[in-house]
Design a protein that fits this description.
The protein is of the alpha+beta class. It is built from 11 helices and 21 strands. The protein has 2 domains: about 140 residues, Thermophilic metalloprotease (M29) (Thermophilic metalloprotease-like); about 180 residues, no CATH class. Helices cover about 30% and strands about 25% of the residues. The strands form 5 sheets. Strands 15-14-11-6-5-19-20-21 form an 8-stranded antiparallel β-sheet. The protein is globular, with a radius of gyration of 20 Å.
Length: about 400
């Protein structure tokens, strides 16, 4: 077993998810990630886990469903998948998910509209569990050969995998003598930025750059979070590892203008290139892209909240992902390289209880990247004052 693989597993279990003795640990993995999955399982049991329940995702099964299932059942997910999620929360379990494509281009020849309608393995109950903060969870990268070849197509398979591992080691701060201490320091910085943003009580945030002129309204009690999470039982954990963002939940009825993605979006097994979205009155009324638009449009038809915003996240240039200038085709890594917004469900932890009912609700949460050094971010006060927030991807507060 590679030392880096074992160190990543320990970081995910001990710091990311912060698995507690006696917990049931749910692990979501994929074909090609078996070694890391086994290392995570070993680390969790060493940590004192009661039971480690591993589920492997095989995208070839989804391919057959999209190809052959009756049209009227494509959006069906058996209820026991959601019940399992809620039961894990009831048991106060922990969850670890490994990100990264495992079969790039497998769905390229499928009907894009049908592909967008089949959201499995996503289940809507996860939004409930996350907002109730009953599970300590962590999403972390799981390098695999096929993912590596997508990211580094000019290298042979082994060289591509070695390069991807080298990058994952760096962005997860495993190249530090004490990765946990390094993450604690970064977390402190992110929490400080989030606190300064929250103190401003901005009414809106204006994003301006090439192809982008978007005004996003905030709720009266919108606050900014970053640098880690805590369950209702007081278990600290890093929901995203790595994490380089500060985020808030916006007013779902106030988003107006146009925004152009600054990185490709990999969703539903398809690459969406050149994405442009136009908003009116909080709703995405026009979705265009150079490729992949049909799949994304179908995904946004899942429910009424799918075309409204659930998150605004800001990322500076001090993180470790952006400077690599690499498109990872993985939301976890790409969203922590650049500021982003998400269509769909919002986070209750980013508002006070008085505004909870106003948050966007949806069965989906689709992040796409809209930030770059060329995109200016400006806070708008309730008095109409414009306050620079990010310039050249550098904090101005």
């Amino acid at each position: 077993m590679s030392p880096n693989l074992e160190r990543l597993a320990e970081l995910i279990v001990n710091f990311g998810a912060n698995v507690q003795p006696g917990q049931i640990v749910d692990v979501g993995s994929g074909l090609g990630k078996e070694e890391l999955t086994r290392a995570i399982t070993a680390s969790a049991y060493k940590r004192g886990a009661k039971f480690v329940d591993v589920s492997y995702w095989d995208p070839h099964l989804k391919r057959e469903r999209v190809k052959f299932a009756a049209d009227e059942v494509l959006d069906f997910v058996p209820p026991w998948y959601g019940e399992r999620t809620l039961k894990l929360a009831e048991e106060r379990g922990a969850t670890i998910s490994l990100s990264g494509p495992i079969a790039p281009h497998l769905f390229d020849d499928l009907d894009p509209e049908r592909l967008g309608r089949d959201v499995f393995p996503r289940v809507k109950e996860w939004a409930t569990v996350i907002n109730e903060r009953t599970v300590n969870w962590c999403v972390a990268p799981g390098p695999s050969t096929k993912w590596a070849q997508l990211v580094h197509p000019d290298l042979d398979p082994q060289a591509a995998l070695d390069k991807l591992w080298e990058q994952v080691v760096h962005i997860c701060r495993l190249d530090e003598d004490d990765p946990v201490a390094a993450w604690q320091e970064r977390s402190k910085v992110l929490k400080g930025v989030a606190s300064r943003l929250s103190e401003r009580h901005f009414d809106a945030v204006h994003l301006e750059g090439p192809g982008t002129d978007l005004m996003i309204g905030l709720l009266p009690t919108s606050r900014w979070n970053g640098g880690g999470d805590e369950t209702i039982d007081g278990i600290l954990h890093m929901a995203n590892l790595p994490t380089e963002e500060v985020f808030t939940s916006p007013d779902p009825e106030r988003a107006d203008g146009i925004v152009r993605a600054t990185k490709p979006l990999y969703t539903q097994g398809r690459i969406v290139e050149g994405l442009t979205v136009r908003f009116e009155g909080g709703r995405a009324v026009q979705v265009d892209a150079d490729s992949g638009a049909e799949t994304l449009r179908a995904l946004l038809e899942q429910d009424d909240g799918a075309t409204r915003l659930g998150e605004l996240a800001l990322v500076d240039r001090e993180g470790r992902i952006g400077p690599l200038d690499t498109v990872f085709y993985d939301t976890l890594l790409d969203e922590n390289a650049a500021s982003h917004i998400a269509l769909g469900s919002a986070y209750e932890s980013a508002v006070e209880e008085s505004d909870s009912e106003r948050l966007n609700r949806s069965s989906i949460h689709v992040d796409f990247m809209i930030g770059s050094p060329e995109v200016d971010v400006t806070g708008i006060t309730r008095e109409g004052e414009r306050v620079p927030v990010l310039r050249d991807s550098t904090w101005q507060l």
